[in-house]
Known about the structure:
Blueprint: E1 13-15, E2 21-23, E3 40-43, E4 46-49, H1 61-79, H2 84-95, E5 99-100, E6 104-106, E7 109-115, E8 123-128, E9 134-137, E10 148-155, E11 161-168, E12 174-180, E13 186-194, E14 200-202, E15 206-211, E16 229-234, E17 243-246, E18 255-260, E19 266-272, E20 279-284, E21 293-296, E22 303-309, E23 312-317, E24 325-329, E25 340-343, E26 349-356, E27 359-366, E28 369-375, E29 381-385, E30 396-397, E31 404-409, E32 417-422, E33 427-432, E34 443-451, E35 457-465, E36 476-479, H3 497-501, E37 505-509, H4 519-523, H5 531-546, E38 555-560, H6 562-573, E39 580-584, H7 603-606, H8 612-621, E40 634-640, H9 649-661, E41 668-673, H10 684-702
Helix pairs in contact: 2-10, 5-6
Amino acid sequence: MNRILYLLPISILCACSNGKVETKKSAPLQYPQTKKVDSSSAYFGTTIPDPYRWLEDDNSAETAEWVKAENKVTFDYLSKLPYREKIKQRLSKVWNYVKCGTPFKEGAYTFFLKNDGVQNQSVLYVQKGNEEAHTLIDPNKLSAEGTTALSSPVPCKGGHLLAYMLSKAGSDWTDIHVMDVNSGVEKKDVLKWVKFSGISWRGDKGFYYSHYDEPKGGHELSRKNEFSKVYFHTLGEDQAKDLLVFEDKEHPTRSFGAALSEDERFLFIEGSETTSGNSLMVKDLSKPAGDYIHLVDNFENNYGVIDNIGGQLLVITDKNAPKYQLVLIDPSRPEPKDWKVIIPESKDLLQSVSLANGKIVAKVLKDVTSHIAIYSLEGKQESEIKLGGLCMVDEINSTRKDSVLFYSYVTYTNPVTIFKYNVKTGTSSVYFKPQVDFNSDAYETKLVFYPSKDGVKIPLFITCKKGLTLDGNNPCFLYGYGGFNISNTPRFSTSTVIFLEQGGVYAVANLRGGGEYGEAWHKAGTKCNKQNVFDDFIAAADYLVAEKYTSHSKLAIHGRSNGGLLIGATMTQRPDLAKVALPGVGVLDMLRYHKFTIGYAWASDYGTSDDKDEFNCLYKYSPLHNVKEASYPATMVLTGDHDDRVVPAHSFKFAATLQEKNKGDNPVLIRIDVNAGHGAGKPVSKQIEEQADIWSFVFYNLGVEPKL
Length: 708
């Protein structure tokens, strides 16, 4: 490494009577002098320099030293913010309330995840019949720092056996374990190198799962994941003896998963090339000599099998229905002309479908707000579960024969409440309601629609104190995502409480590229239409300023993953848009993203630099390649050293380039979390530390001293 220059003391903060923070002029930050290497790539006659490509090597000692040096600068800066510890204390207090996941049932057993408040990982509980619930698996006991996370617990038919996944340090790689539910004793079965897999039991003898070959050469966190395979694991057998159920040797980047109908008659193999669209095969297991039937052999649309209804398949799909429809497909006549439509496409988005007590339970999204409707199996709407308000229903857990289902309800100002609904009586009752140290009654959420650059109306949720004065001087935090058909629905965030309590305006824009209005909305923000997403976000910021919720000097912008790309593109296109920018675990090098781990699967949204037209589009907005000499917002890039979804090299290269070319006085920092990944499974202690650093950085650079 080249010489490392460390942070000079920052200025003393002076609290003023108006609650603002004034700063004395301080010496500029001194960043590590990141070396530049003459490396480049040619794309269709255009040579693109890539001087920081050496930072892609996650096993390099030189990269490790760079990470250490950058974190030294960042944490020295953050440590000198006088209210950082008070923010952490307030966050810890607000975070410390009991949280419960939506229960799910199998046979006589009810399972649910619960966190007593600030446990690093949620604990899995089980209740048999009317017995008292007790701890089944406590992942907090599996690692000293709470970095081992539990996910995807799946009981067998009857519920007496449970398969579940464990991951470490935030990695997407998981191990599958099996437990006897009644005794709490672990079976000897441990399956390795599992990623992006479901678990589907066949009786209690074993289950289907997806698997990749073990990565070689110590690059398991960055090497491209190829040749997904489906296996059947027989309990008690060594993984090496697992039965290979399906593979595709001709298409290394296709991923596959298996699932069974509830009666275990049909086995489904779903294939995907990207994050959008899937193929679908089915095998009738009642006919052992039968072959797979190819229901769908392309990846042009999305298909999700709900269950087997009398030998026909109930499927939710956007084929010929951009906002989705529910159809019945006869496997012997799979052509769309032979489908029976059960719930037709409507003006609203059909998000998901489940079965309960012989009824169809449909979750519908109307202007980014959840609704639940109950239908007969013939498709006649019989009732609706009354929810009220601007809310999101996150989960609906039901079984085909049970008359009771569970669903979760959340808003921007109230955390997740769990309800129990009786399909027979049509009545809901509160199953679990959390108690949080936050006066939600003092705040309100509004849904407005603003015009984007091309005139398209974009939904925007705005949450703030009731009666807030709109004088253009309020601090504002604008969040966005805009990709992968994901709907940015209402959600309570414990960390934003502290911002709201300080008079902040919390805004969430529902950008094109998401799934809020179906596949057409999604496609309007993909590939060479991706600029629409950035235009939508910029228009949201300008709307908040025009309506005097805030000013550009009081605005912070944030997004994670694809949202990190959003922030990177926005701040390079409009450096004047916001005072603070927080690109988190972002896809920031759009020319090379598909060369790492599962990145190739994002091509349906982004396109790739291997195609000339798509290269031209990507190059125009790729954050890394559009950093010019300019005065940038106060920036803190966020990533984790074990992120094997969006490898941290994106953030490393972007931060180094920003530090090189920033001509203003605002800080440009990168915060690299150690033993942390893309976000899933991050211990609560690490979440609180990260959020305390984020809000300290935001408040200081917006010139606001929190009253704590």
